[in-house]
Amino acid sequence: MYPRSGTNGITDLLLAAVALAAVAATICMKMPTTAQEARATQASQSADALGALVGAWQSDTTDGVSALSSCVWTPEHDAVLCEQKIRSPAGERRAINLFTFDPAQERFVFYVLSRPGDPMNPVPLSIQGQIWIYGGTMVGQDGLFHRTVNDFSKAEVYLWRQEASTNGLDWMVGARGQSRRLR
């Protein structure tokens, strides 16, 4: 799901952790013939770390919230796009998430569109092996740092947890759960 600025940031971080999913796409690869194609190929290879997310995922229900996510590679294999159906006691809503790699700055970035017309601000995404960390670099409106940690070390399940910190260094674990791969 997705971290979002605003008064509902904690819920959005929870939703971001809960709702990753994907349907695989076939990508044709070719050897680069120009400098521009070589840079595109380098970005595509770096973006490969995002492949752990590709598939369809169903989260468990935490605090009354669950999500069904379907994630696919973009046609050029530079990003993963996820559509989510989020169910909560307040009803059902949908979101779109984009995970990509910025080769110019050599960093991963996450974007969320929680509602049509909302801004899509970049959220820092760190991928270290099987561990993905979203956010955690800025103080929220409540005076705390918030981040989501996903662990993709198991093939058919990823574990997630929400964390908060007063200083951005020492993290307290909040909500946690898992999402199971459906396909």
Continuous helix count:
2
Helix content: 10-25%
- Rg (C-alpha, Å): 16 Å
**C-alpha termini separation:** 18 Å
Point out poorly predicted stretches. Answer: 1-45
Strand content: over 45%
**Spatial order of the strands in the main sheet?**
1-2-3-4-5-6-7-8-9-10
Which sequence of SSEs, written as H and E, runs from N to C? HHEEEEEEEEEE
Largest sheet: 10 strands, antiparallel, barrel
Query: Could you report the average pLDDT, rounded to the nearest whole number?
Result: 80
How would the global form be characterised?
globular
Main structural class: mainly beta
Quaternary organisation of the protein chains: single chain
- What is the total tally of β strands? 10
List the helices and strands and how they pair.
Elements: H1 9-18, H2 35-47, E1 55-59, E2 66-73, E3 79-88, E4 91-102, E5 107-113, E6 123-128, E7 131-139, E8 145-151, E9 157-165, E10 172-181
Antiparallel strand pairs: 1-2, 1-10, 2-3, 3-4, 4-5, 5-6, 6-7, 7-8, 8-9, 9-10
Describe this structure in words.
This protein has about 180 residues and is mainly beta. The N terminus is likely disordered. Strands 1-2-3-4-5-6-7-8-9-10 form a 10-stranded antiparallel beta barrel. It is globular, with a radius of gyration of 16 Å. The protein contains 2 helices and 10 strands.
